[in-house]
Amino acid sequence: MGIKKYKKRITSLLLLLACNLLTFFTIWLLDRYDRIYIDQVLFQMKSSSEGVQGNLALNAVIRIGMFGIITTAVEYWIYRKMPRQGESFNFVRKHTIMFSALALVASIIIFITQLDVVAYVGLVSTDSTFIEENYVSPYDVKLEFPQKKRNLIYIFLESMENTFADTSVGEPIVENFIPELTKMAEENVNFSHTKELGGAHSYLGTTWTAAAMATQTSGVPVKVIVTADEDTYGAEEDFLPGVVSLGEVLEKYGYNQTLLVGSDAEFHGRQPYFIQHGNYNIVDIDSLKAEGRLPEDYHEWWGFEDQKLFAFAKEEVSKLASQDAPFNFTMLTCDTHFPDGYVCELCEEQYEEQYSNVLACSSRQVYEFVEWIKEQPFYENTTIVISGDHLTMDNDFLADIDPEYERTIYNCIINAPIEPVNEKNRMFGTIDMFPTTLAAMGVEIEGDSLGLGTNLFSEKATLTEVYGFDLLNEEMQKRSDFYNEEILDIEEEE
Question: What is the reported pTM?
Answer without folding.
Answer: 0.84
